[in-house]
Amino acid sequence: MDVYEAVTTRRAVRGFTDRPVPGEVLERVLSGAAWAPSGSNLQPWHTYVLTGGPLAELKKRAGERLAAGDPWDEPEYEQYPPALKSPYRERRSAFGEQRYGALGIARQDMEARQRAASANWDCFGAPAALFCYIDRDLGVAQWSDVGMYLQTVMLLLRAEGLHSCTQMAWAKYRKTVAEVLSPPDELILFCGMSIGFEDVTVDYTRTGRAPLDETVTFVGD
Ligand SMILES: Cc1cc2nc3c(=O)[nH]c(=O)nc-3n(C[C@H](O)[C@H](O)[C@H](O)COP(=O)(O)O)c2cc1C
Fold this sequence. Notes:
The chain is an alpha+beta fold. It has a domain at 3-21 and 48-81 and 110-126 and 140-215: NADH Oxidase. Helices cover 40% and strands 14% of the residues. The chain contains eight helices and four strands. It has helices at 3-9, 23-33, 52-67, 88-101, 110-117, 140-159, 174-181, 212-215, and strands spanning 45-51, 128-135, 163-167, 187-196. A four-stranded antiparallel β-sheet has the order 1-2-4-3, sandwiched between helices. The longest helix has 20 residues, at 140-159. The two termini are 33 Å apart. It binds flavin mononucleotide (FMN). Flavin mononucleotide is lined by residues 11-12, 14, 95, 120, 165-169, 191, 207. InterPro entries: Nitroreductase, Nitroreductase-like, Nitroreductase/BluB.
């Protein structure tokens, strides 16, 4: 698979089979992703990989919280500005309509949207997941390094025939994740990532992108 194919076939997959992901594949992918660039080579990511019993335990605990209607953990970072301005606001609502429309959920049906979103905490059925942390002393440039690292992980997963879904949703249950992983206090959970083989019976709509001239300006001859 060439890089363009890896990039264009990567998408947020929200339905996985229970086919296990071999440990050596995960190790190969994470060893490869360690070559992601970072300012001054700080490599500011810290990743926990969960499979088997520990992942089942995490899903169980998160499911219990969900069933109990437990409030989300207070955020340690802002996922979106409270008043999202244009064009981001429109892109976000277009995404919501696309994602939930594909599931036959009406725009105003917030309860059904929440129900669909709750699959996040079952990792959409995935048999493997990673949880990516960053040191709380680091700043925006290092958070951007972590983004590059995560995309590298996702592309290498494609090269292995695997799919993924990055999930900030896990930050909402970060204390439950911490119960299972016991990370040091200086780390903030940025996101989880479900990893596995796609369940091709699950319907989806491919998320679109803004026209190139909305996000890129070419200056030159
Ligand atoms: C940092 C980050 C966090 C995300 N969090 C979630 C999440 O919690 N749940 C989810 O279903 N998708 C999540 N996504 C997936 C995005 O919705 C998806 O990448 C975006 O809509 C573009 O679609 P595509 O990845 O299928 O091309 C996240 C993606 C990123 C990069």
